[in-house]
Amino acid sequence: MAINIEDLRRLARRRLPRALFDFVDGGGGDEWSVRENRAAFERITFRPRVLVDVSKRDMTTTVLGQKLASPVVCAPTGMPGLLWPRGEVEAAKAAARVGSIYTLATRATCSIEEVAEAANGRVWFQVYVWQDRELTRKLVERAEAAGAKAMFLTVDVQVVSQRERDLRNGFTVPPKVTLKNATDTLRKVDWLWRMLRGPKITDRNFLGLSTRAGGSDLVRLGGYVNSLYDPSVDWDDFRWFRSLWKGPLVIKGITTAEDARLAVDHGADGVVVSNHGGRQLDYMPASIDALPEVVDAIGGRAEVLLDSGVRRGTDVVKALALGARACMVGRPYLWGLASGGQPGVERAITILNSEIDRTLALVGRPTLADLDPSAVRHAQRVASPAAIPAV
Ligand SMILES: Cc1cc2nc3c(=O)[nH]c(=O)nc-3n(C[C@H](O)[C@H](O)[C@H](O)COP(=O)(O)O)c2cc1C
Fold this sequence. Notes:
8-stranded parallel beta sheet, TIM Barrel, 12 strands, two-stranded antiparallel ribbon
């Protein structure tokens, strides 16, 4: 039985072909930022208050206008449908069922229309500004028509990073088939059987959007989409993008005060403090370490979310104490999905929720509104006496 998120990771490792497990688990370069995301959470400790009535606890919240059962939401991740047939639909249904919300990545095996319908419109959508601006506009219009409640623009994929585990495993488009990875894949019988019966895997949001792809299969369509990332995107493009989407707009991948200020000045309604789970630029600081600077710079003018390395309810409570409104999780729900489809994703979120509830009780802060920097000892905060109120 999975008692914690690490258990779900172990189950996923057992059930997935090695190349797929590594695709989810791995990061850029030396994977220093992947490890640092965890190490930084582990450096933060609590300052619990005792003899506080914590018999009535409440972790419900509202994020980007969306009522949530807890401050845990699903981050956008590319191609969950490789882990479980129609993985995006399964994850979105799971999130909706437990009062969370799923963010669909543009690169998905299910379309925005399918996912929005399955989750009763309880879905956010993530995009990039692609080289083909017309195609970008069409994706935004489709998300709006499908009823997506917020838009996340990811800005930290100027170029796709080099993930060395993927290269070694031949997990590339087109994939490299070797004796080793073919044998390993054939041994994961349950996964293989399930996937063979599932729908054809492709970059479904791009089907029919461009005649330049040269085919609808993952190799040709996926290869074409890979060529669409645009390293020239700048704040002028963001201004244009802002004019396309009237709903809540969040910039994902902000880690400095300078960019946080620019985001608000250019009309963002929120930012995600994120190093992309350590999957893009290696040697970025942990998101949790970048959080206080971004929170200070935003000064309450937009909502601040955090992701990267959240594995425990205690991590969520630490992030909220340091000013985040909610945490996004990526790998935790993907491991849940790989280990058991929709119920596995529900399990991942409910594990985190029960840990949050217990933590709120034990730190003597019964509601999320009671959390502030005084709840934690954080190297950057403890240095400032103002953060620790005199009692
Ligand atoms: C397999 C995988 C695919 C991802 N694909 C995307 C993507 O398409 N767009 C995006 O904005 N972020 C993507 N991310 C990053 C997540 O949105 C998020 O920032 C990250 O997973 C958070 O770290 P965590 O996995 O430690 O929770 C991906 C992450 C993973 C693990």
